[in-house]
Amino acid sequence: MKYPSGLIVFDMDSTLIGIECIDEIARLNDCYTKVAEITKAAMEGKLDFSESLRQRVACLKGVSESSLQALFNPIPLHPGAKELFSTLKEKGWQRAIVSGGFTWFADRLSAELQADAVIANQLEVSDGLLTGRVLGDIVDASIKASSLQALAKKWNIPMSKTVAVGDGANDAMMLEQAAVGIAYQAKPSLKRIADYCIDEPDLRQVLFCLESSQLI
């Protein structure tokens, strides 16, 4: 059996895409300022992520599920995302999206980039409207880190060949768990623990980090 060359796990919001989906949904419900402030504090590590997510999702009650399409048409990819995923696929890497965002967006992004796995939070919908609740366990920093481990085990990839890419405090444990942690246009708190920092908006720079770490 030929094993994958490695595993790379990406955050979604503000990492693979140029928006925070929850903030943009909030615009549809006239509560953008409130939600964006909570998001900023959570990404800076000033608020517990799970509790902050519940607070923010509660503000989205009543938004129609059909209206979400406008936020992802076209998908607001960061520059270089498609090229990065394509190159990594050619090199035999497993590519996963592990997000504290929502499956509605992550599943579509996964299809666009042909990711091998996606893990995210699920918004509860009733009669076509968001209820203001999240189903199941919230994908927080701990779940992100354990997901990286679980995916590596699933695909028989040693942890020495794992990479994590993110931008906020919720990604810190995942970056520390991986052999190589990459902070992409990240908050200062994440940059401090990352092995590499990318400050320009071009995800293809991830390849240079992998080359530098001798993983590709």
From TrEMBL:
Pfam families: HAD (PF12710). Its EC number is 3.1.3.3. Keywords: Amino-acid biosynthesis, Hydrolase, Magnesium, Metal-binding, Serine biosynthesis. CDD domains: HAD_PSP. Its cofactor is Mg(2+). The keyword Hydrolase applies. It is an enzyme of class 3 (hydrolase). It catalyses: O-phospho-L-serine + H2O = L-serine + phosphate; O-phospho-D-serine + H2O = D-serine + phosphate. It comes from the Bacteria. Pathway: Amino-acid biosynthesis; L-serine biosynthesis; L-serine from 3-phospho-D-glycerate: step 3/3. InterPro entries: HAD-like_SerB, HAD-like_sf, HAD_sf, PSP. Belongs to the HAD-like hydrolase superfamily. SerB family. This is Phosphoserine phosphatase. It comes from Idiomarina piscisalsi. The gene is serB.
